[in-house]
Amino acid sequence: MKHKLFLALIVAAPMAFAQAPAKEAAKPEPMKDAPKPATVKATAKKPNPKRLEDARHCLEQPNNTAIIKCSEEYL
Predict the structure, then answer these.
(1) Which residues of 35-59 are buried (b: 16+ CB within 10 A; e: fewer)?
(2) pLDDT digits (tens, 9 = 90+) for 25-51
(3) Less packed terminus of the chain by CB within 10 Å, N or C?
């Protein structure tokens, strides 16, 4: 009995694992005349001479808006 089962498995195994080759999904062709996204020109900024200076005096301003406006000079 065990021999018949073993033979059946040997015969059936290749059929169970054999699969039809999968068809590749049709890939859409890229559009040749597709418009390219607009690139933004990087504007060269001049180096800020105040960049390395201390801006802590801006913290003495009366409110957050004034502090921000004062400290923007140092960015």
Answers:
(1) eeeeeeeeeeeeeeeeeeeeeeebe
(2) 667 676 666 666 666 566 667 777 888
(3) N
